[in-house]
Amino acid sequence: AQDSTLSKTAGSSEESKINMATPIWLGIKRSPEDLKKRIHKRLAARLPGIIREVKKLRDDGVSWKRLFELGLEYRYASLYLRGLISKEKMVAKILSESWHYAKRQMTWFKKNKKIRWINNPKKINIYDKFHPEFDVLTPYTIFPSKKQAFIWVNI
């Protein structure tokens, strides 16, 4: 799914403002402990929906093999629903693999020398101006303004 900010502006004069803007890359520094807590919190909130979705996909005829191929959460939820792993094992595997994925993302983003890393995004004025619910942003979100595009790196 495309970022809603971008999809609203696609093909419009607003899009040309984004293209002409000077991007400012802002990344949020998080401690490994904080990042692990955030991953756990997100999984706890999403897990019931993931399991419901996998059950529905099965009811709609999606094979176990295809569910295994769809991605991390689908893979382990399908193994759990088949009785091949416990719920605790499913959660542990999703958390572990999500953590490893987040570490790979950080390694990749650290290569971008344009990113200005921030310890506390709440101290920056654009935090309130552009998006009060900062925790729901995707890992890579663009906020256009008239002269600059702020690119948040939020893992």
Task: Give structural attributes.
single chain, 155 residues, alpha/beta, 4-stranded mixed β-sheet, 7 helices, 57% helix, disordered N terminus
Task: Give a quick summary of the entry.
With 155 residues, the protein is an alpha/beta fold. It is built from 7 helices and 4 strands.
Written overview of the protein:
It is a single chain. By secondary structure, the protein is an alpha/beta fold. 57% of the residues lie in helices and 14% in strands. A four-stranded mixed β-sheet has the order 2-1-4-3, covered by helices on one side. Strand 3 and strand 4 form a beta hairpin. Helix 3 crosses helix 5. The longest helix is centred in the N-terminal third of the chain and has 28 residues. The protein is elongated and about 50 Å long. 9% of the residues are buried. The N terminus is likely disordered.
Sheet with the most strands, sense and barrel status: 4 strands, mixed
The overall average pLDDT, rounded, is 76
Strand arrangement across the biggest beta sheet = 2-1-4-3
- Level of helix content? 55-70%
Q: Specify Rg, calculated over alpha carbons.
A: 19 Å
Beta-strand content = 5-15%
Shape descriptor:
elongated
Strand/helix succession: HHEHHHHEHEE
Label the structural class.
Answer: alpha/beta
What's the end-to-end separation, in Å? 17 Å
Q: Could you tell me the number of beta strands?
A: 4
Q: Helical segment tally?
A: 7
The parts where pLDDT drops under 50 for at least 5 residues are 1-7, 127-141, 143-149
